[in-house]
Amino acid sequence: MPAIVGPIRINSVGGGVVNFGDAFYLAPKSTSKTNAGSGALNTGDFICTNNGLSSTNPFDPDVNDQNVTANK
Predict the structure, then answer these.
(1) pLDDT at 61 over 80
(2) What is the 3-state secondary structure (H, E, C) of the chain?
(3) Fewer CB atoms near the end CB (10 Å): N or C, the chain?
(4) Distance of CA 24 to CAs 1, 3, 21, 29, 30, Å?
């Protein structure tokens, strides 16, 4: 079944996968993890962010989140 994709705007793509429409299988080739405080990674037009207090805990006890070794 065809997909109908409405208007979109992509500000930037730094690698990775951008897919429009139907897809049977998507397998990321790489992953990354970013820790940032509240309001730090907002993108778009007319952003208004009000933050009183922000705290980020980057501690990750299980170390591996998304393994992509089988996606080569």
Answers:
(1) yes
(2) CCCCCCCCCCCCCCCCCCCCCCCCCCCCCCCCCCCCCCCCCCCCCCCCCCCCCCCCCCCCCCCCCCCCHHHC
(3) N
(4) 12, 13, 10, 16, 19
Burial, 50: exposed, middle or buried (Cβ in 10 Å; 0-12, 13-18, 19+)? Answer: exposed
Whole-angstrom Cα distance, residue 12 to residue 14? 6
pLDDT band at 34 (very low <50, low <70, confident <90, very high): confident
Q: Is this prediction's pTM over 0.90?
A: no
